[in-house]
Design brief:
eight-stranded mixed sheet, acyltransferase activity, transferring groups other than amino-acyl groups, 7 helices, alpha+beta, Aminopeptidase, 245 residues, 36% helix, two-stranded antiparallel sheet, Trichothecene_AcTrans
Length: 245
C-alpha cells in the first residue's frame, strides 16, 4: 500500500468493534505485557470474542469517552478498511483504585493467580493518572480516552480534560499516519479547551507521542506486583503529558 493513501479519522460504531479489537490484537501482538494480561488470549477466537464484548460494553457505558477509528480505502472496490483505533476519555474523577470496581474480575480472569497479578498491575497503573487528576484542581485532564465538558464540542459531545486510554494501528498499515492522526485528534480537542493531555505509552509508541508534543513525566511506571510474581513479565510504560497550546 502506498503512503499516499488518505487516512481519515471518524467515530467508530458498535458494529466496528470486532474489527477494531482484531486491529488492537494484531497491533500489540505479545510485545505489550499489560495488553496481554488485560485482554487474556486476545489472539485467539474466544479471546477476541470476549475482548470485543468488553470493548463494546465500555463504549456503550462511558459517556465521557470518544471511540475513534482510522480508515483508508483499499482493494479493487475501494472499500473502507479500518486500520487503527483510539479512545480518548475526559476524566473528571480518578480511575477506580481497584480492578474489581472496573471489571468483572472472576469472569475475565477465572484463574486466581492471573486475577491477582492483573489486580496488582492495575493498582500501579492508575497511580500516575490519579495523581495527574488530583493535580488538575478539578479542571481535569485530556487523555487517550477520556473527555470533559467545556463550551467547545466535537462530534456533539461536551469535553473537559482528556486521557488517551487506547491507541492501536494494524501492523500492515504502519507509516500511513494513522497513529499520528488519532493522537492529534485528541490533542487538538485538548488545546481547544485549554486542557492537559496524558497517555501511558509503550517504548515503541513513545516516539510518536513525542512527535505530537508530549513529554515524559515518568520515564518508567513502577509496577509493584510482589515477590510471588517476580518471574512474570511486567509492563514497561512511560507516562507522558502535553500542556495545551
Amino acid at each position: 500500500m502506498s503512503p499516499a493513501n488518505k487516512v481519515d479519522v471518524v467515530l467508530l460504531s458498535d458494529r466496528d468493534i470486532p474489527t477494531c479489537f482484531e486491529v488492537l490484537s494484531e497491533s500489540f501482538g505479545h510485545d505489550a505485557p499489560f495488553v496481554d494480561n488485560y485482554f487474556p488470549n486476545h489472539d485467539t477466537p474466544s479471546g477476541r470474542a470476549k475482548g470485543s464484548e468488553r470493548l463494546l460494553l465500555w463504549k456503550q457505558n462511558s459517556s465521557n469517552s470518544i471511540f475513534l477509528k482510522a480508515v483508508t480505502r483499499t482493494g479493487p472496490g475501494d472499500q473502507e478498511c479500518i486500520i487503527g483505533l483510539a479512545t480518548w476519555t475526559l476524566m473528571r474523577e480518578p480511575p477506580p483504585a481497584e480492578l474489581d470496581m472496573a471489571e468483572n474480575v472472576e469472569d475475565v480472569w477465572p484463574d486466581k493467580d492471573d486475577r491477582e497479578f492483573m489486580t496488582r498491575l492495575w493498582r500501579s497503573y492508575v497511580v500516575p493518572r490519579t495523581q495527574a487528576i488530583k493535580d488538575s484542581n478539578g479542571k481535569g485532564v485530556y487523555g487517550k480516552v477520556e473527555v470533559h465538558k467545556s463550551r467547545t464540542t466535537r462530534y456533539g459531545l461536551l469535553m473537559s480534560w482528556v486521557v488517551l486510554e487506547l491507541l492501536a494501528v494494524h501492523p500492515n498499515y504502519q507509516r500511513l499516519g494513522a497513529g499520528a492522526a488519532l493522537v492529534k485528534w485528541g490533542i487538538e480537542s485538548a488545546d481547544e479547551q485549554g486542557l492537559k493531555a496524558f497517555v501511558e505509552g509503550t517504548p515503541i509508541g513513545r516516539r510518536l507521542y513525542e512527535k505530537c508534543g508530549m513529554r515524559a513525566e515518568i520515564e518508567e511506571i513502577k509496577f509493584d506486583v510482589g515477590e510471588e510474581f517476580a518471574e512474570r513479565r511486567k509492563p514497561k510504560l512511560v507516562f507522558l503529558s502535553r500542556e495545551p497550546n
